[in-house]
Structures are given as C-alpha cells and as structure tokens.
Amino acid sequence: MATYELNGALFADMVRGGAQNLRANAQIVNDLNVFPIPDGDTGDNMSMTMEGGDAALQGVASGSLAYIADKLAGGMLLGARGNSGVILSQFFAGIAKGLSNVEKADAKALGDAFQSGVKQAYEAVLTPTEGTILTVAREATEYAVEQINSNTTLEEFFSAFIKEMHRSLQNTPELLPILKESGVIDSGGAGLVYVIEGMNKILHGEKVTATAAPAPAAPSVDLSAFGADSIMEYGYCTELLLQLQNSKVDAESFPVSTISDALTAMGGESIVAVKSGTVVKIHVHTMTPGKVFEYCQQLGEFLTVKVENMALQHSEAKVENRYEAEKPQKQEHKPFGVVAVAAGEGIKETFLSLGADFIVEGGQTMNPSSEDFLEAFELVNADVIYVLPNNSNIILTARQAAGMYCDADVRVLESRTVGDGYAALTMLDFESGDADQIEQNLNQAMEGVVTGMVTRSVRDSHLGGMDITKNDYIGFAGKQMLSDAATVAEAACDLLSKLDMTDREVLIAICGKDADAADMDAVRSYVAENFPALELYEIDGGQDIYHFIFVLE
Asked: What's this model's pTM, rounded to 2 decimal places?
C-alpha cells in the first residue's frame, strides 16, 4: 500500500526500526575502521546516539510530526558520541528544524527536511571531509529530492534515497585515500545506511530485530521495606523532564543553573539539571518532591515525572551492591575552569595535578557523550571553561555540548592527543585574567608537540608502505604508521628512532597497564644511548589500548 504522508507515530516507529537495525549491525560498522587499532567503535557510538533519541520518545503516545522529530533530536543531541554520532544527531536535528510546525509531511516536505538535515550536519563540522557520512547523506538527499514529483510516495522517496546511499557509500574510497589504501568503505556512512534501511523496513511493514540483549526485567519491589511505622530516611529519587514555558520564563535563554541553585537551597542532593533547547532534564534526591514540583511548575510544565521512595531502592541495594561510588560535587564558583578528557588513573591524576578541574572519563574506544560534558561543565562552575578533548574523535561532541550549555563561556581547544592536553596544561596560567590570552597561550603550548603511540594491531592492514599482521605491535604518530614489530619494546624503540628529535628537550613516556617493567627498561636504555641530551620523564599512566604514549616537547 502506498504511503503519501508521514505522521508523528509512523516517524517514531521508523526511527525505532532504524535504531534497532543499526544495533543489529553495529559490529559490522565497527570493523570498518581503517586504522588497525582498537578504536573501531563507530557503530557503537552511532547506535548509542540513536538509542538516546529512541529513549526520548519512550512514553510519548502521540504527537505531531514536528513534536516527535523535535523530541527525537533532543534525545540524540544529549546521547551523541563520537564524530559520526554527533554528525548523525545534527542530521536529525536539521530534519526536525525542517519539520518545524508540520503536522504531517509528504515526500516534498520530507525532502526539504532532509536537505535541512544535511545543511546542519555540514555546519556542525569545522572542516567537512568528503568521503564520509556527510557525503553519503548529501548525495542521497540530492538524488532523492531530484526524483520527487507531485505523486511521489514515501516508499519511492526512501527507495531512491537508499539506492543513492549505496552508490555513494561504495564511492567513498575514491574520495578519501586512506579508505582506498585500506580497502574499506566509510564506517559512518555505513552506519547511516543501516539507520535508513531500518526506517524503510518499518515503512514497508517489516519487522526489525536487534541482536542486543533485551533490557532486564524490572525488579519486584519489596513493599515491606517501608511500612506504617517507618521513618523517612533516604528521601525520594525524583526525575522529571520540564518543558519551559514562555508564558512563565524566557524559555530559550533561561539559565539552567537557576534550577540547580534552587534545588540546592531546598536541600536537594545528587542534582543534575541539563537543558536541551527549551526542555530541562532534572534529577534530584529530596525529602520534599512536592516542593520540587511546585518550584518547577513556576517555570514550565512536566513532560514526564518519576518519583521513587529510596528506602525501597536502598533495601534492594543492600542485597545487590553495598558499594556506592562517591559522587562528584559542584565546585566553588570561579572565573576560569578546565575540563579534560582522559583514561587511565595515572594520566587522570597527572592532569588534575597540572590544573584540570574535572576529568571526563573517555578516550579511544570510549567516547563520552554530550551529556557527560554538560554535567562536567555544571560541576566545574566557572565563567569561562576551557575543554581539552585530547582525541580527534571527541572534539565534535565537546563542541556540540559547548553550544548547548548556556551558563558559561565554553571554549573547546583542538587538543587531538594526550600529548596535546599535557602540553597545554603545563602552560596553564590564569593570572592575566584575559580569557582570550589564556586560550591563545594554551593553543601555543600545543604547537609543535609530537605524540607517538604504541599498541597492538587488531587486524591485517597495509598502511604507510607497511604490511601489518594482526597482533603485531605498531607505533605511529597522528595517522602516520612508523613501526611494526613482534614485541612492545621493539615497536617502541623503532618508533622513537623515526620521530623527529630536532630541537627536542623533553620526552614524556606514559606507560600503559599492558607494558611491563622490561619494556620500560628497554625504552630507558634506548633513550640514554641514542638521545643522551633528552630529558626523560616517566608517568605510570595505567591506560588501556596504548602500551606507550610518547610526548615530545
């Protein structure tokens, strides 16, 4: 049966199908990673981004197409992880913008919305690269829109879109040399194909099944844990989504910190308040949820509300898990603050000792979400916040979060490696009080820093003129493969021999948890013999993935 109009309910079902189809094929997308190190998490990142949007639609029984698209986009923005995840979220955010005030959409209106999605996705990237998910989205949209006439069905629109997606995806190696050298297509573009194919299956009445494990069943509640003579000790875990209302406040510019401060004044604990557009996600532990609701209703109206007696949760927790991790507290307000991304206890401790105010857990294979950054910004509590992503795949997510945060001037630096972040922090100085000058000094500190890394190849590959075998130890700087050896020590020393030591004075060797004392001894001896003028500093980083991270200054 032909479908000529897309309504909110059908769109929600299609998006859910897209998320499920991507989850079912996430590992295939992961395996398309062109660089033979364990960072093949594009499929997982995009899948979690889609699932963030799907979660935002849970409990939404109905609504206009515009409303559903907007809810979806908000959830995806908060859940976005990794470059491809951010681009995917921006694509759907642009679609939502194109569907603003639309109850239902025909093929023409949907094509216009997809064009809006492509435009916003490109604008989200500082330097758009062709041969990626951007190209696949753009070329498929252009082709599908060209086919539209007054009688075009949604099935015909998606058929044309998918046809061109496949052609565009197969052509990505011709646009991006590293794809061609590795003999793969773009992983982000492949992820988008799975999303749209899943949506199309639902449109045609087919079922989509994800291979991910089903959500665990909700535990039964022991009502005997709180009876007629019980004393309220733990309070209520209170969560809500608040739609700010222009009749009550200026919804767009309303500072979310006002809510956090008010809940703190009420005695609330474990407070999280994150704003996406004009919707605020709130979590608080409180003895008086009624006061929370009364206050929040002065600002807007509730979309969802959940209140749970924590005595019941506590009763269950005593059986399941006695350990509760210490939760970070909101810091004293200050003019300047620094948020850095890091993984490995030694690296995190080093960054904190050098002046970082908050560490967002993340790095290779573990990209933080926009919401992770938003929570960090709130806890740092500064007028100006400098962000060190320290991984090229995290910069876009950090920028997206910075654009969503209203209560500080958030400045995301182009720190692409742990070495960049380390160098910037060693020059951290707020004495001038000039935000622009401080940012300039941090950027200058990163100039010329070289970061080399040693890890294990996760697959056979041919890069930089080298034939690499799975499980070889490899050394590289940026995307340039420099060494390939049978042992960690050999790969590390060979890497050091290939790095440009001209005018270098300091080498920081950050030892990962999989490198042993003999490996470090070999590095120490090699440097002493070959670069006697170089000062060697050693850090027990404790990081996964990389046996060594070398930073040259």
From this structure: 0.66
* CATH number of the domain to which 263 belongs: 3.30.70.980
**525 contacts 494 by C-beta, under 8 angstroms:** no
Domain interval for residue 469: 450-552
One domain for residues 172 and 112: yes
The three-state DSSP-derived secondary structure of 450-504 is EEEEEEECCCCEEECCEEECCCCEEEEECCEEEEEECCHHHHHHHHHHHCCCCCC
The number of domains in the chain is: 4
Does any domain span residue 219? no
Q: For the purposes of burial, counting CB atoms within 10 Å of the CB of 65, is it exposed (0-12), middle (13-18) or buried (19 or more)?
A: buried
CA terminus-to-terminus distance, the chain:
66
How do beta strands 334-342 and 382-388 pair?
Answer: parallel
- CATH code for position 440: 3.40.50.510
Same domain? 80 vs 167: yes
How far is Cα of residue 427 from the mean position of the Cα atoms in its chain?
27
Residue 13 CA to residue 200 CA, distance in Å, equals: 10
User: What's the CA gap between 346 and 543, in Å, rounded?
Assistant: 8
Among 451, 456, 345, 397, which Cα is nearest to 38's? 456
Same domain, 418 and 376: yes
| CB proximity list for 211: less than 8 A, separation 6 or greater | 23, 24
Could you give the count of Cα atoms lying within 13 Å of 67 in the half-sphere of its Cβ?
Answer: 12
Q: Specify the pLDDT at position 128.
A: 84
User: How remote is the C-alpha of 424 from its chain's centroid?
Assistant: 22
Note the pLDDT of residue 270: 64
Other C-beta atoms closer than 10 Å to the C-beta of 204 total 12
Residue 285: the pLDDT is 80
Tokens of 542: 């404790």
pLDDT digits (tens, 9 = 90+) for 117-146: 999 999 877 678 899 999 999 999 999 999
- Tens of pLDDT, residue by residue over 144-179, are 999 999 999 999 999 999 999 999 999 998 998 888
User: Average pLDDT of 294-315?
Assistant: 80
Six token digits for residue 334: 């200050």
- Do 474 and 430 reside in the same domain of the chain? no
- Shared domain for 262 and 386, answered yes or no, is no
